[in-house]
Amino acid sequence: MITIKTTVNASIEKVWEFWNKPEHITKWAFASPEWHSPRAENDLREGGKFSTTMAAKDGSMSFDFVGEYTLVKENQAINYTMGDGRKVEISFKETPKGVEITENFDPESENPEDMQRGGWQAILDNFKAYAEAN
User: Fold this and answer.
1) Which regions in the chain score pLDDT beneath 70?
2) CATH of the domain at 80
3) Could you tell me which residue ranges the Activator of Hsp90 ATPase homologue 1/2-like C-terminal domain spans (predicted)?
4) Do the Cβ atoms of 26 and 127 come closer than 8 Å?
C-alpha cells in the first residue's frame, strides 16, 4: 500500500462535509490547475457508490473515478474499493493542529509508485487548501 497524509486546520465536521459533499468535491478533486472535476456523485454509506469525473480543462481527456464504500464511520474513517478492485482506507483524526487525514491505497501496475503517490498527494493538498480557504 501507498500512504499519504496531511493535516487540515479546520474542524472535523467541516473536513467531513467538504470531503464528502458533491458540491465541495468538484472544487478540489483534481491533481493540477489544468484539470477540474465537473461532476461528482456520492452515496456515502456502506454499499453506496461514488463517481467523480476528473477532466483536463482543455477537453483533451477525462475519466470517472468510481468506487463502492465498504466502511463509513462518520468523522473517523472511510474505506472503499475502486472500480478496478484496488482498496483504499482513509482515516480522519482530530489533533491539536487540526484534522490529520491519512490515505492508504493499493498501487496500480501501470505507473511508478512515486508518480501515484505524487498524484494522490497533489489531490490531498488541493483538499487541504480548499478546506482551509473556505
Assistant:
1) none
2) 3.30.530.20
3) 9-132
4) no
Which residues, at least 6 apart from 33, have a Cβ–Cβ distance to it below 8 Å?
none
Q: How many CB atoms lie within 10 A of CB 82?
A: 15
Q: Which residues in 50-77 are b (16+ Cβ under 10 Å) and which e?
A: bebbbbeeeeeeeeebbbebeebeeeee
User: How many structural domains does the chain have?
Assistant: 1
Judged on CB neighbours under 10 Å (0-12, 13-18, 19+), 127 is buried
Give whole-number Cα distances, 38 to 25, 35, 48, in Å. Answer: 9, 10, 21
Amino acid at 88: V
Structural domain containing residue 78: 2-133
The answer to whether the Cα torsion of 47, 66, 8, 17 is positive or negative is negative
* 80 and 66 Cβ atoms separated by less than 8 Å: no
